[in-house]
Design goal:
CATH class of the largest domain: Alpha Beta
CATH topology of the largest domain: Rossmann fold
Strand content: 15-25%
CATH architecture of the largest domain: 3-Layer(aba) Sandwich
Distance between the termini: 57 Å
Radius of gyration: 24 Å
Family: Belongs to the TPP enzyme family.
Pfam families: TPP_enzyme_C, TPP_enzyme_N
Keywords: Thiamine pyrophosphate
Number of domains: 3
GO molecular function, one term: flavin adenine dinucleotide binding
Helix content: 25-40%
CATH superfamily of the largest domain: Thiamin diphosphate (ThDP)-binding fold, Pyr/PP domains
Structural class: alpha/beta
InterPro entries: THDP-binding, Thiamin_PyroP_enz_TPP-bd_dom, TPP_enz, TPP_enzyme_TPP-bd
Number of helices: 21
């Protein structure tokens, strides 16, 4: 079909067991058959009573890898991490409105990361809803807050078609959260129909006028910033952006928070728009024109008294080369052709850093990670305040992927690392994790242990909400005793080695960069998770 990708190829094993249009199955069985036929191979689950027929169907029908999370925000965060590495959706299994509510924070992050996820949320049977049983909720209202596509199935015959539509929506560029709400009788009733995969629209192409306008700005104007986000931060697009920059004199930056950045040797040493408002405003004060490539013009994470919401000058003009759903690499190639930009060697990122020494510092830890990480590592970064300077110290690391917290809802790091490991094909995942936010989704360690995943977690243990101490001062206040009690994580101190051990993950506490480097290097030779509590 013109303008569409072909439906995903169905594995031979799946093809033998699928008969499209067959109605000799119940709704749950049609759901599983349809998901498998649409190329969905992983289910991240925390099921309840309303989902037992879906669980039974997963038990009877081979082909779906099922991964249990002990809390729904772990489940949704794992699905986010899986998409970021695989660029194909997993399905989540969530229990009614409250279960979906538990998973909303990481669905918020996934929506900001533009990750494709299919949520299957159980619900009260259609005839039971009027009785207002204890778990009855406005599940649709909750789903709308994070979903680009949402549908409630009303009978078993619709479930397969609804599942195919949900997968199509999830796979639509750049990736979308799609939520199916499944009253339990639609799953246990007979009459299910296995649906065929639906074609998925290809990523839209940039408007040729937008390409010509960007080329004109680059040729004629000064103080131009090309701001990269989304798929513009992949290796091929980076090389084209560098060509355009070299031909025009424009500067390049990445958005502040990004779903996935390809970094290290042979790739661009891209800095990000800074998080602190004053630093960002100062860093962008020179800008007269901003060209957006799958990015948004920089604004503050929060408002502050007397400070502007926009972090670029009010007089600067903003130009869109591509929106998030458009093909950034193709647009940048067209831009280089329009500019007549010659091939340009990628900049030298310098030698691989040496390990840091002594007491932990952000710069020293970043150099240590860069010095010991294996080729092809995946960094899941929820280091929050301690990790703001990590980028400049890791440009010379081996090639790796860096995953950020995208929506600001803390508790993403441990689940993100877990899902990335499942989608990473055996690549080592390094989770740089603040201690306070780790406690939101600590149950992810248990899933890592159960699945024997190659994840090394470095807990940055300062025993306080350090970012909130800074934010408290940003609004013009100095913390007193009451405020400090709400921002401090001591009294009692958390023992991360014991917490990890209780979840089935081996761990150790260290106080120096030499120790953390040695333990990281040792953990990389193991095919199971390991946790390091770094006291900072």
């Amino acid at each position: 079909m013109p303008g569409h990708l072909a439906p995903p190829a169905i594995p031979a094993q799946a093809a033998r067991r699928i008969e499209f249009g067959r109605d000799a199955v119940n709704g749950a069985e049609s759901l599983v058959h349809t998901l498998l036929g649409c190329g969905v191979e992983v289910c991240f689950a925390n099921p309840g009573t309303s989902e037992m027929h879906f669980v039974a169907a997963l038990d009877r029908i081979p082909g779906m890898k099922c991964v249990l999370g002990l809390q729904e925000n772990v489940v949704t965060g794992m699905a986010d991490g899986y998409w970021r590495m695989m660029e194909k959706p997993a399905v989540t299994l969530l229990h009614c409105g409250p279960g979906l509510a538990n998973g909303l924070a990481n669905l918020h992050n996934a929506r900001r990361a533009r990750s494709g996820i299919v949520n299957c949320v159980g619900d009260q049977a259609t005839y039971h809803r009027p009785f207002d049983a204890p778990l009855t909720a406005d599940t649709e209202a909750l789903a709308r807050t994070v979903s680009q596509w949402m549908r409630t199935s009303t009978k078993a015959t619709d479930v397969g078609a609804d599942a195919a539509a949900a997968v199509q929506a999830a796979r639509t560029s750049p990736g979308q959260v799609a939520t199916m709400i499944l009253p339990s009788d639609t799953c246990w009733d007979e009459g299910g129909v296995v649906a065929k995969p639906l074609p998925v629209p290809v990523a839209q192409q940039a408007d040729p006028l937008a390409v010509r306008n960007a080329a004109r700005i680059l040729r004629e104007k000064k103080n131009v910033l090309i701001l990269l986000g989304g798929t513009a931060l992949r290796e091929g697009a980076q090389a084209l952006a560098w060509r355009a920059s070299q031909a025009s004199g424009a500067k390049l930056l990445a958005e502040g928070s990004n779903a996935r950045v390809q970094r290290g040797q042979g790739r661009l040493p891209l800095e990000r728009v800074p998080y602190p408002a004053d630093v960002a405003i100062n860093a962008l004060s020179w800008v007269e024109h901003v060209i957006l490539v799958n990015a948004k013009a920089p604004v503050g994470f929060f408002a502050y008294p007397g400070k502007p919401s926009k972090h670029y000058p009010e007089t600067a003009e903003v130009h869109v080369l591509t929106r998030y759903e458009q093909d950034a690499e193709a647009a940048l190639r067209a831009l280089c052709e329009e500019l007549g930009a010659p091939a340009a060697a990628m900049p030298d990122v310098g030698a691989r850093p040496e390990r840091g020494r002594g007491a932990p510092t952000p710069e020293g830890l970043a150099r240590t990670v860069a010095a010991v990480m294996p080729e092809g590592a995946i960094i899941a970064d929820e280091s929050v305040s301690f990790g703001r300077g990590f980028y400049s110290e890791t440009f010379g690391a081996p090639k790796h992927d860096w995953l950020h917290i995208t929506g600001g809802a803390i508790g993403c790091g441990l689940p993100l690392a877990t899902g990335a490991a499942i989608g990473g094909g055996g690549r080592r995942v390094i989770n740089l994790q603040a201690d306070g936010s780790a406690m939101y989704t600590v149950q992810a360690l248990w899933t890592q242990a159960r699945e024997q995943l190659p994840v090394t977690t470095v807990i940055l243990s300062n025993r306080k909400y350090q970012i909130l101490l800074g934010e408290y001062q940003n609004v013009g206040a100095n913390p007193g005793r009451t405020a400090m009690d709400m921002l401090d994580l001591g009294n009692p101190d958390m023992d991360w080695v014991k917490i990890a051990s209780g979840m089935g993950v081996e761990g150790a506490r260290v106080t120096t960069l030499e120790q953390v480097g040695d333990l990281m290097a040792q953990s990389f030779s193991r095919s199971r998770p390991f946790l390091i509590e770094l006291v900072i």
